[in-house]
Design a protein that fits this description.
It is an enzyme of class 2 (transferase). One of its GO terms (molecular function) is manganese ion binding. This protein has 268 residues and is an alpha/beta fold. It contains seven helices and 13 strands. The protein has two domains: 106 residues, Pyruvate Kinase, Chain: A, domain 1 (3-Layer(aba) Sandwich); 142 residues, YojJ-like (1 (3-Layer(aba) Sandwich). An eight-stranded mixed β-sheet has the order 6-13-12-11-7-9-10-8, sandwiched between helices. Strands 3-2-1-4-5 form a five-stranded mixed β-sheet, sandwiched between helices. The longest helix is centred in the N-terminal third of the chain and has 19 residues. It is elongated, with a radius of gyration of 20 Å. The protein starts with a helix and ends in a 6-residue tail after the last strand. The chain binds adenosine-5'-triphosphate.
Amino acid sequence: MDKGKHIKVLITKALEVINEVNAKALVLITSSLENEIPKVDVPIIVVGKDFDLSNDRIKKIPLPLSLGIKNVVNLVSAFLIENNIISYGETFVYVTPNTLGIRTVKKEIATTRGFFEEAQTVLQRLLEIAVELSLEGREGHPVGTIFVVGDTRNVLKYSHQIIPNPFKGHKLNVLDKNIKGIIKEFAMLDGAFIISNTGRILAAGRYLDVDPKKLDVHLPPGLGSRHLAAAGISKKTKATAITLSESGVIRVFKNGEIILEYNPRMRY
Ligand SMILES: Nc1ncnc2c1ncn2[C@@H]1O[C@H](COP(=O)(O)OP(=O)(O)OP(=O)(O)O)[C@@H](O)[C@H]1O
């Protein structure tokens, strides 16, 4: 039996499971949906690459499946809670090309307010890299870093090199196939990566010259200078900033606010 048939069988089974466990949503995690979307009373969420809110019954969440099923299910859980599709204590059923799963969301897993509306391909890719870096570190040591994406003219204006720019003169893009290893190597440098809207890496080792106090940025207590700088640059410019804390937590900032907070190291 081929893959397409497997998912059809799993979706049929999922409809039975939804009734049996009183699930409030059906989540289809698959890169291609040649199969018919099933007729079912609960909302359907399709996890795929592009963001496209097609109709009231079906929502599409842009998440790369390469994040791994555990991370995808965690982030989908947060999405369902924040969009009032399910409440804490309620259950959803998910289907991947080779698994059928049941998840009851018991506690806050992540904050994703606004993130999925922003998550274009470049941000999705950086989230994927940040998740890998959070889980693996560099040669087993925890790594922290900042990625600043978009509005590069202003970002460069409000930042300076603290070391010679290793990306100068190279046309490297975060969407390139073999780029992950290079980014992981340079993530150990102090400072930030500067990345264009199309994914071109313009610089690494860049200090962000923003004063969060003057910018009226308010973050939860306990977040240090890395996070304040990321929040600050996202307020001062139209860029989106992604931080990876040495503690493993990934945050995404837009306009000075946290629009995603997720710790891939946590067990939910
Ligand atoms: N303005 C800035 N621009 C770029 N990088 C910065 C800036 N401020 C701090 N950093 C980077 O953040 C690193 C960690 O700083 P600090 O420990 O104060 O931050 P933090 O927010 O507590 O981060 P973490 O959670 O990873 O410890 C610094 O070594 C430096 O590389």
